[in-house]
Amino acid sequence: MVEDLHILLREYAGRKGLPTAVEMDSRTLQSTPESGARSGQDEANRRKGSKVHAVVDTLGHLLALRVPAADEQDRAQVEALAKAVQEITGQHVELAYVDQGYTGENAAEAAAKYGIQLEVVKHTEVKRGFVLLPQR
């Protein structure tokens, strides 16, 4: 089974068989105008399409995947992703690293419902516009 393969790959890498920490992230996939009902407008990325939400263990092995319309919020996907991850790992995951799109009380409560704590990872530097380099 797939679960057995995950366990073998993790043990081969010197880790415990089942992960206790995961990473959740999303990416917007741009679609064509004919894409239909699953397509939505992602205002943050200014793209119309679908959004792929993936959960991977800390080695990068895929555990869960969800593809809603792009206009659905990241934080609204936390409960379904947390449930899927806990079913796959047998309730072993305790911590999920997420970006700021997955923040908020509702997201934290949805994850806590399945025994997962969300840890928001932020960039150390604020990215704004262009940076002027010294003249050479």
Descriptive overview:
This protein is an alpha/beta fold and 136 residues long. It has one domain: Ribonuclease H-like superfamily/Ribonuclease H (Nucleotidyltransferase, domain 5, 2-Layer Sandwich), CATH 3.30.420. 23% of the residues lie in helices and 27% in strands. The protein is built from three helices and six strands, in the order αββββαβαβ. A hairpin with a 4-residue loop joins β3 and β4.
Structure summarized in a few sentences:
It contains three helices and six strands.
Could you give the topology of this structure?
Layout: H1 2-12, E1 21-30, E2 40-42, E3 47-57, E4 62-66, H2 78-89, E5 95-98, H3 105-112, E6 117-120
Parallel strand pairs: 1-5, 5-6
Antiparallel strand pairs: 1-3, 2-3, 3-4
Helix pairs in contact: 2-3
